Records
---
Amino acid sequence: MFKQMESNGTQRLHFCHDPETGLKAIIAIHSTLRGPAIGGCRFIHYNNDDAAITDALRLARGMSYKAALAGLPHGGAKAVIIKPESDFNRAGLMQRFGQFVDGLGGEYITAMDSGTQISDMDQIQKSTSFVTCTQNTGDPSPHTALGVFEGIKASVRFKLNRSSLKGVHVSIQGLGHVGYEVARLLHQAGAKLTVTDIDQARVTQCEKNFNAASVSPDQIYAVDADVFCPCGLGAIINDTTLPQLRVSIIAGSANNQLAEEKHGDLLTTQDILYAPDYLINAGGLIFVALQYSKQNSREIRQKVIQIGDSLTQLYQNAAQTKQGVHRLANHQAEQIISASNDFNSAA
Ligand code: NAD
């Protein structure tokens, strides 16, 4: 575990086990150098405890990079609640988790993630104020979707030299909170859509509302399109899917899209432009962080829209310095975080 923390650069790992509610939770604090660490709370099944720890560590680092590149005064963290196999009282479990968060004294601010919903955040709020995405704050997904949409526009402009999305063909994997809204925005902008989801009802809705074509989930990688927009699962750029890809751009919301760093290098070799996931999907984090610091909705929207400009700048730098976009993004995020380190020690 310590080896994993060291190679990942994680500052702290907190555990909580409460037999009364069945809570088994892990909070990975990747960094607080830029400010309180912020990041979502997952509530899903894990095969074993190690898998849960690995997930928390991996995702916490992504949150640090995301916050740093978005210029937010926060470090990154992630919480994982292991979903109990037997019956449990959801409200009680979430309230107990709130106590766990509260005990960290503001070092960590929690938020919604896979498997948690606004009502869970409301329960957590009964035990701590270090929580966002409550009923008063709202769902971050539309902001994530807006950032992805702006990111797709910037990527199409850079790679295909097209200033409009009219007629641009986008394949979308996953039509949940983010993917469906991205589909709506793209359709509105005149893009042509091919979609997939394991939930047929969502596919049918997109066919009906956005004139989308559809394929089965395993066919999405081979769709001959301009842009592939992954909005479902992580690790979908891997040894199996890479040879199937027939797109010029990958730009979507899913976290941890590259199964390994080498898959980013292979995308560069295959001349496929990759929008680093933690940069293009930062809209939700920007929303929750700025809401938390009481900024108004116009300022928040403006900052989310800037994701397009940040991506353009990154693409230009990567082209000039002949580096892979994903490697340059990692490097820039690490530089920003370590500069905060210098600032802290000087202070
Ligand atoms: P969601 O759970 O609402 O939607 C995911 C969708 O993917 C669902 O419709 C699900 O049926 C579908 N799906 C699952 N497995 C699939 C498969 N094998 N093939 C095709 N579709 C499949 O999640 P979301 O909130 O829309 O988030 C989507 C992704 O974006 C996740 O990876 C999430 O971590 C990431 N993300 C979300 C936000 C946010 O604000 N919601 C922010 C940053 C990153």
Note: The mean pLDDT is 94.
---
Amino acid sequence: MSRLIIVSNRVAPISEGGPAAGGLAVGVYDALKETGGMWFGWSGEVLSSGQPQIQLVEHGPVTFATVGLARRDYDQYYRGFSNATLWPAFHYRADLVHYDRHEFEGYRRVNAWLAGHLVPLLRDDDVIWVHDYHLIPFAEALREAGVKNRIGFFLHIPFPAAQVLLSVPPHRDLVKALCAFDLLGFQTRPDLRAFCDYIVHEAAGQVDDTDGTQPASIRAFGRSLRAAAYPIGVYPDEIAQLAKAGSRGKPVRTMKATLHDRQLIMSVDRLDYSKGLVERFRAFERLLDRSPAFRNRVSFVQIAPPTRADMHAYQDIRLRLEAESGRINGRFAEFDWTPIRYIHRQYERQVLAALFRQSHVGYVTPLRDGMNLVAKEYVSAQDPDDPGVLVLSQFAGAAQELTAALIVNPIDVDGMADALGEALAMPLAERRARYRDMIAQLRDNNVSIWRDNFLRDLNRGAADKPRAVRARAARKAVVA
Ligand code: ADQ
């Protein structure tokens, strides 16, 4: 069996039992343990001096290979082009796109440099699976070094409509680089369509699309590849067990005691401007404004740990949210009731799952999101006999599958307030019916199935294509 090589910007921190984070990291780690292989990426360290050295750590059949980044590389590749250019553009925030040609050069340089570290570690029949927007030029860099292995790419965030992508000056270089992969995976059919649209209308390429049962065949920039939608999943039954076990824990008991039988609306997100938090707060305010019966009868808990806190746009969203929650609480709070509890920290998965299970509404309203695993985790954590209601943005990838949620437009404050009111008052029979529909969907496409579908299609391509030239010659070239 071929070894699997996972390449991602960050490598999941590993403890005795496997990766500390859940979901994707566990799903990918399971596959690595089965085939043996390697997880390669940035260690998360930023070095102020000295040459970054690659660190290899073995855990059974899996090798973790990580490398630090020099300060300039971190600034140009990570903070700069990845997170100040690609992230806003791919989330349809052309207004926030910052572009600096030197950062794009840094982005390409770091991709080539990382690829150069991987090449000597590769074997001829390794299958390479690259993850996310930080690493779009990675296959091109490996190909330039002579690597002939199968290389797949999965984009975790949305792929924007062509007209939005055109706002990124080197859009053509990016799409050309994507075409150096053998297989591209997107979260949803609309993302795949947006990519194919660019290929046909902006790159004069050809797309031989199917009914969605097989990957589309694409020819562009003198290259041939395939592309399909592979919606990422969770392990719903494992989350349900975590939620049940966590319900007896102290954090949940404390939360229940302070709620005093009020209904609970719950949101959990990384603190990011793509998550629609300001609009969400305002819709909750609108509900209290329009329907006084809900005052002092419902509490909204927003958990949002800060991320990318050294970037201006993230400092800005934090200030706006602090101002909004303060204003709304100032307006409606009573001696014994704080309408919005806004908490800036990370919690263990078990605590989050248990809180989801206690809450009457999962309020998940990003302005754009590749998938949004919180929506899937919320549904998974529910008590089947007395489930809560998911209020979900139409612009989260998850809305393509979780059609039994209350689907909202996240900029329609009145529409969201209506949905919150409907969710809080929904009869048990309807809640159960909606839950059954969604949990069946989540079981049909859990994270193992997602991973196996992608790897099956990536490997299937291998049988069609002889690999005459092997990686070894290339390895020598790059190491020299
Ligand atoms: P994210 O933008 O990070 O992921 P999401 O899919 O919601 O968004 O995943 C976040 C994960 O972090 C979830 O598993 C969640 O439980 C966890 N998390 C969030 N807040 C937390 C907190 N306070 N404490 C502990 N854990 C917390 C990107 C894309 C998404 C895509 C995923 C996976 O932006 O669209 O769904 O990758 O492909």
Note: The CA atoms of residues 270 and 304 lie 5 Å apart.
